[in-house]
Design brief:
With 462 residues, the chain is mostly beta strands. It is built from 2 helices and 35 strands. The chain has 2 domains: 252 residues, Jelly Rolls; 190 residues, Jelly Rolls. An 8-stranded mixed sheet has the order 1-30-29-28-27-34-25-22, with no helix packed on it. Strands 4, 6, 7, 9, 14, 15, 16 and 20 form an 8-stranded antiparallel sheet that branches. The chain binds calcium ion. The site of calcium ion (CA) has 10 residues, from strand 24 and strand 35.
Length: 462
């Protein structure tokens, strides 16, 4: 156990001294913290089509639902289920023409390829009017890298795609500068200015296969899974794309959206117990737990249930009592909190804050503060894990302690806030004294990245 000396209730003192530097044009900059993407609002504006592929090929906007060709099926996805294609079975999806001509657009989605080598091209989707310049859109894996084509007006990515792992891809076209950009896992791979627009004004939009124009194989297919496929008639900013790839969920717990995930993945949460009255929060409203068994269950935070995946969890906590300890975050393979589970965040019997992970050798890697959480005061807690940095704890934006560890067992897919549903010592870990948390929580974030101290400064100074 690694203890740290922590001064609570001192939010206004500088967490870090940081010279502000301009990075992207869209990052939030404040002179206190520096520049970061973490506070960028996730927007669904100008969304033309959205396919969650949760056992359905319907478009959430209602306009462009897809029909399956050769019966692609469903598998466990990055969020809920995903659609699964086989190149050799020539499976794909098709809908009517989606107007992307002569305008800016963004197409972004999650994918998990099961083959990138057996042929030159694998196509995620496209839209063809004819085999002529600027009239055939296709977004592919070509020669193992992402590839963005309008036909004779194309851009290739730079990173070789591996099979059997999830990636986030974004293809952005800026019609004002005639620029194509490819992002992989939220990071810009390649931009090129083509001086050509996309001009097709008819043709079916397809997913899982596309016409690439010309050649002896005019239509190519895809092998693997595709999830949360979004088409928007606007440029998504670098920060939006970064968060689309890295922000697993964000629950602001405000009254109009008490259990709504305001992040890019639209995870579902359920409330159990006599709670969920919105109270004055750290940012707008918050969630208050009562003295009887009460908790919120979030399903499907894939970054936590992926072995060794880096993560950052950020949350505000205001206890009304710390007597006897509490469970703050409990992860489990089952919604009842049992099965393979872990008490991740909680209080000791004397109110000290503890954050845990479990490594691949089943050791609990734990950090505990040296003083109790203050009562009736908002305290910001952030836990960071990465194989490089280990398990890190930040209090009110200040790094206070770390324990080195390279591996991490997956936890979840159920993440339960406020108590364990079993409300006993199932999967007790470290020095947490498990039980109902008394007080409020606010602004729950999970990222699939090791956030920087600048990012955490923003989260701790909203
Ligand atoms: Ca809030």
């Amino acid at each position: 156990m690694d203890a740290a000396v922590i001064s609570f209730g001192n939010k206004s003192s500088p967490a870090i001294t940081q010279t502000t530097t301009a990075t992207t044009t869209t990052a939030t900059t404040n002179m206190f913290c520096g520049s970061s993407c973490v506070n960028t609002t996730i927007s669904t504006s100008s969304r033309l089509a959205f396919y969650s592929f949760d056992n359905s090929t319907s478009d959430a906007t209602g306009n462009y639902s897809m029909s399956g060709i050769a019966s692609p099926n469903y598998v466990r996805g990055w969020i809920g289920s995903a659609i699964n294609f086989s190149y050799s079975n020539t499976q794909f999806l098709s809908t009517s023409y989606i107007p992307l001509n002569s305008r800016s657009f963004t197409i972004d989605f999650w994918f998990y390829a099961t083959d990138v080598s057996s042929t030159l091209d694998f196509s995620f989707g496209g839209e063809m009017q004819s085999s002529s310049t600027s009239k055939c859109l296709f977004i592919n894996i070509r020669n193992k890298v992402l590839y963005f084509g309008f036909f004779s007006a194309d851009t290739a990515g730079t990173t070789n795609i591996s099979i059997n792992q999830w990636y986030h891809a974004a293809f952005v076209y800026d019609n004002s500068t005639k620029q194509q950009s490819i992002y992989l896992n939220g990071i810009l791979e390649k931009s090129s200015i083509l001086n050509k627009a996309f001009l097709a004004n008819n043709g079916s939009f397809t997913i899982g296969g596309a016409y690439i124009g010309g050649g002896t194989t005019p239509i190519v297919y895809y092998s693997g899974y595709i999830d949360h496929f979004t088409i928007s008639s606007r440029i998504k900013s670098p920060c939006e794309i970064y968060l689309a790839a890295t922000l697993a969920c964000y629950f602001p717990f405000d009254s109009i959206s008490l259990l709504i995930d305001s992040g890019p993945n639209f995870l579902t949460a359920t409330n159990t117990g006599a709670i969920a009255t919105a109270v004055a929060g750290r940012v707008n409203q918050a969630l208050q737990f009562s003295s009887i068994l009460s908790y919120v269950t979030i399903n499907g935070i894939s970054v936590l249930s992926s072995t060794n995946n880096a993560f950052t969890i950020s949350m505000w906590i205001k206890p009304t009592s710390v007597t006897g300890g509490a469970t703050l975050i409990h992860a489990s393979t089952q919604p009842d909190g049992k099965g393979d589970c872990l008490a991740m965040w909680g209080l000791t019997s004397t109110g000290l804050m503890t954050v845990n992970i479990i490594d691949m050798s089943n050791n609990i890697v734990t950090m505990t503060t040296s003083s109790a959480l203050p009562l009736n005061t908002w305290t910001h807690i952030a836990q960071v894990f990465s194989s490089v940095s280990g398990n890190l704890l930040y209090i009110n934006g200040t790094f206070v302690a770390s324990v080195s560890t390279v591996t991490r067992r997956p936890v979840g897919p159920y993440t339960i806030l406020g108590a364990s549903p079993a409300n006993t010592s199932y999967c007790k870990a470290g020095s947490i004294s498990m039980g109902q948390f008394s007080g409020s929580i606010d602004e729950y974030y999970v990222f699939g990245r090791e956030l920087t101290s600048i990012d955490i400064c923003h989260l701790a100074n909203p």
